[in-house]
Amino acid sequence: MAAESPPNQAEIDWTKWRRPExxxxxxxxxxxxxLANHGVLPRDGKGITKEMAVKALTNAINLDVEIAKxxxxxxxxxxxxxxxxxxxxxxxxxxxxxxxxxxxTRDDIAFGDNNTFNPEIWKSVVGTYGxxxxxxxxxxxxxxxxxxxxxxxxxxxxxxxxxxxxxEAIFSYGETALLMCLLGDPKDGKIPVEYLRILVEEERLxxxxxxxxVAQPVTQKDMxxxxxxxxxANEHKSAEASEIGLGTVHALQNAVTSLLPSxxxxx
Length: 267
What we know:
Blueprint: H1 30-37, E1 48-49, H2 50-61, H3 65-76, E2 86-87, H4 119-126, H5 137-157, H6 166-183, H7 193-202, H8 220-233, H9 237-243, H10 249-263
Antiparallel strand pairs: 1-2
Helix pairs in contact: 2-3, 4-5, 5-8, 6-8, 6-10, 8-10
């Protein structure tokens, strides 16, 4: 049976959320999983076409159509059938296309399961916010960089090679930037920590708690603005620039913001 097209924004009933049932599949991306759990994407997580993905991402969370198209194309590329024109959410776990190391919510592929939510990893990430009710650039940057360091230590302890270069840095910054863009105001990076926890831990959009999609489409310009501020707030930005072989903070900033359109990801 062919999957139904996602509803228009006006037709979305955000209260009709449910967890996946046996036989339904999910991805390493909390946002995609949330859209499936709300029925914006097919609830079984299967047979998602580019058109369906773009419609869901633009209508439901107001992602800029060009970013949505790029993401949808990348998702279809994860299908092991090179001739396919659709993807299942479980395909998105393919490493290096959309899924990536140093995720805020999943383990690295070197340790086996890069698809399933890891509560211990997330506990260490969200713990950075402490008693704060709201995110800001400094705390979000700290949470992101702490995860980089934790991954590096885990690879060293297991005697596994840790690869963290410019591509991985783009994934890492892009993940945090999109969360800040889609759950709050892209200008100031402030979102309720409650919204963040609900999206990641329950894989639902916190509509009942007050979340509404952003008024204007989230663009590459918004992403660059967030990343610029995340880098600026990173107390270890010089060390990170050196770690990925760029040498200077200015080079790190230019590299990440100039290449973001090629690596835009949801998580």
